[in-house]
Design brief:
699 residues, mainly alpha, flat
Length: 699
């Protein structure tokens, strides 16, 4: 049936019809209803095949008749009889419309003149003419003229202007050569009557046949339109019904027979909140199918970790897809997608901070959100457009955050805007300096010294002061500001991700991971990169414009920290800086073996220690009610112990310490290297932000 539906859809597409989506939600048909659908669809397909075949035959016959008519009309111009005796002589003109033979030569010809007429594709005319001349050695007269109206090419379906040819020759051998060459060039040849009266009778008959075929073809087109109307009405519903039937059989094929091979058993994972709906659906299915045995659900205890089900809507689906691209959280672990709803657009906005560009993105996404129910937007076939449409809420937030960061950067289409008056005063600088006319003439750039009273009146109310857009050191200022901002935001973001592990360890009652994993991870991150954030803020607070020239370099201090040395040319930020940095590096290095060996050794000691196990649960034939004794968030197939451990805790089987140690070693290497590489990766916020600010420079 799907093959039949594909044929029907191709016929609709060929006729220029658009197949609308199914307006209703039909149920899956029963067996007898499916047979009726199959019969009706095959009947429509057969009618379409016959009508299409008849229409193609009629069109081909009509095209041949019209070509033949044009051949006779154009040939009549070349082979017209001479004027009667006594008429004034017609002046000779070099024209394609003139007769091929001089009328005065007819009486001197002893041989019979034969003709070959037909039409040829315009692309083959030159090669056809050259081959005729070479093969027949000039013993022919060929004339070519374009057809007055374009016609369809049966091979390609395109509308082209055919070329009519009329060839006159002497001798039967020359005629055979001409016909063979014409066949090789796929010419459509037609018989050409010798007498003018026969040609007139033939053209009259062609006119009558063309009129009759046109009437029959019009009726065929009307009948075809009626059949296509039936297909447009029925096909959407049929396709939905067949898809539901395939889905049902797909699920049934995944089931297994019981011992008696009289019923099907399906083992599935089901959320607790959906159990009632599953029971109702099974009950309704048993009732509608007329089965004497009612379907039921029974819980199967298992130690396997349940799969992760994350419910999304049209707003959160895009963000969840981004998170799932990096990895799906294990069962009952913290889902980072809700936090990514804020952090992902904000980090993008740091790189794309511009009020104008962000507003264009926001309006584009808002248009997609407002018209999200439009069928033309949802059913587009362009893959790139569907990607944009599925992420419309993501683009909407990215545009909104870009507007916000654009106000912070004070950029609108890479142009600074003056919302509040500048905090820098040129007049105060001019009053307290020796800026003479000669000085101003020789110095095109003037320096505003914030140490002069009244020159700098305090920070700008919101964002960056617009006067920086006029400064020659504008790029140097933004370079330092955005680089440090990227490092601070990146380390805060990484620290937040590490702290989310607290909820997982507490929920799964694995409190040893708080000490043996989370604590070493935070010590390693904060002792190195958290200290870098501290140096950035400490330098901002301690040094002002008055002593900014003697401010030390944070980068040199950070390098000396790993080398356990000090640089005499780079003054310390505070007293005792070198010992503090040495202790922090030692703590960071000491946390690595704890992170590597802590959890495997703890699990080894825990298994070797004698334990007072609790009695195993007794399973009886009588099962408890399905929804009783279940806790919120538990799985249908999982026991309470499995839910508490979440598949992470040790089970009753022997632990594979080699696998545990290998997993912990990979985690340790990945985390330590990731802290370094991710910190450097966050610098792309700085680089792309500067690149975006200079992408559209204003004159």
């Amino acid at each position: 049936m799907e093959k039949t539906f594909t044929f029907l859809q191709q016929e609709l597409r060929g006729a220029g019809r658009v197949l609308e989506p199914c307006p209703e939600n039909p149920r899956a048909p029963l067996a007898r209803e499916a047979l009726r659908v199959q019969e009706q669809s095959e009947q429509l397909a057969q009618e379409l095949r016959e009508v299409s075949r008849n229409r193609a035959s009629l069109r081909g016959r009509l095209r041949e008749l019209r070509q033949y008519l044009h051949v006779l009309r154009e040939g009549q111009r070349f082979t017209s009889l001479p004027a009667p005796l006594g008429s004034p002589p017609r002046p000779r003109a070099l024209s394609e419309r003139e007769p091929i033979l001089d009328p005065s030569l007819h009486q001197h010809l002893d041989r019979k003149i034969n003709f070959v007429a037909g039409v040829i594709h315009p692309w083959r005319v030159n090669a056809f003419e050259r081959l005729l001349w070479r093969a027949c050695r000039g013993y022919l007269v060929a004339s070519f003229v374009e057809m007055p109206e374009p016609m369809e090419d049966p091979a390609t379906g395109e509308s082209i202007t055919w070329v009519i040819f009329l060839i006159s020759y002497w001798g039967e051998q020359i005629g055979q050569k001409i016909r063979k060459i014409s066949d090789c060039f796929h010419c459509h040849m037609y018989p050409y009557p010798e007498s003018e009266a026969s040609r007139a009778d033939t053209m009259s008959g062609l006119h009558n046949q063309i009129q009759d075929l046109s009437v029959v073809l019009e009726e065929t087109e009307q009948y075809l339109a009626q059949v296509l109307d039936k297909v447009v009405l029925a096909l959407p519903t049929w396709r939905v019904q067949v898809q539901k039937m395939k889905a049902i059989y797909l699920i049934l094929n995944q089931c297994s027979f019981d011992v008696t091979e009289k019923c099907l058993i399906a083992e599935v994972w089901c959320p607790v909140r959906d159990l009632t709906q599953v029971q109702d659906a099974l009950r309704q299915g048993s009732y509608k199918s007329g089965s004497s045995v009612e379907c039921f659900v029974q819980r199967i205890p298992t130690s396997e970790s349940p799969p992760t089900l994350i419910r999304t809507n049209k707003f959160t689906a895009g963000f969840q897809s981004i998170v799932d691209a990096y990895g799906v959280a294990s069962y009952q672990e913290v889902n980072p997608a809700p936090y990514a709803i804020i952090t992902f657009p904000f980090i993008f906005a740091i790189m794309f901070g511009d009020v104008g560009h962000g507003l264009l993105m926001f309006l584009f996404a808002l248009w997609m959100v407002l018209y999200e129910n439009s069928p033309s937007l949802r059913q587009a076939s362009n893959e790139i457009w569907l990607t944009f449409f599925e992420g419309r809420y993501l683009i909407l937030l990215m545009g909104a955050f870009s507007i916000y960061t654009g106000f912070i950067y004070n950029e609108c289409f890479s142009k600074a805007t003056v919302i509040f008056p500048s905090a820098w005063s040129v007049a105060a600088m001019a009053n307290h300096s020796s800026w003479s006319s000669a000085y101003l003439a020789t110095h095109p750039s003037l320096t505003l010294d914030p140490n002069v009273t009244g020159v700098f009146q305090g920070p700008y109310p919101f964002g960056i002061d617009p006067i920086w857009s006029l400064a020659t050191n504008h790029l140097n200022f933004l370079n330092s500001f955005k680089m440090k901002m990227s490092v601070v935001l990146g380390i805060v973001h990484m620290g937040f991700g590490v702290l989310l592990g607290v909820f997982n360890h507490v929920h799964f009652q694995q409190r040893h991971r708080l000490v043996l994993e989370l604590l070493p991870e935070m010590v390693f991150l904060l002792a190195l990169f958290g200290y870098l954030v501290f140096l950035i803020f400490y330098k901002w607070v301690k040094f002002s414009a008055a002593d900014s020239l003697v401010a030390p370099s944070i980068l040199i201090h950070f390098i000396d920290m790993f080398l356990f040395t000090s640089n005499a040319g780079n003054l310390p930020l505070y007293q005792g800086q070198v010992p503090v940095q040495t202790v922090l590096v030692v703590l960071a290095l000491a946390s690595v073996p704890v992170l590597l060996l802590g959890t495997p050794l703890y699990l080894c000691c825990q298994q070797r220690a004698p334990r007072t196990g609790r009695p195993a649960p007794v399973t009886t034939e009588e099962q408890e009610p399905l929804l009783e004794g279940q806790e919120a968030g538990s799985s249908v197939n999982a026991t309470k112990e499995d839910v508490e451990s979440g598949g992470h805790g040790p089970d009753a089987k022997h632990l594979d310490f080699a696998e545990i140690f290998m997993h912990q070693a990979i985690h340790t290497i990945e985390y330590c290297l990731g802290c370094v590489s991710n910190t450097a990766s966050y610098l792309r916020l700085w680089a792309l932000s500067l690149a975006h600010a200079r992408e559209y420079p204003w004159p």
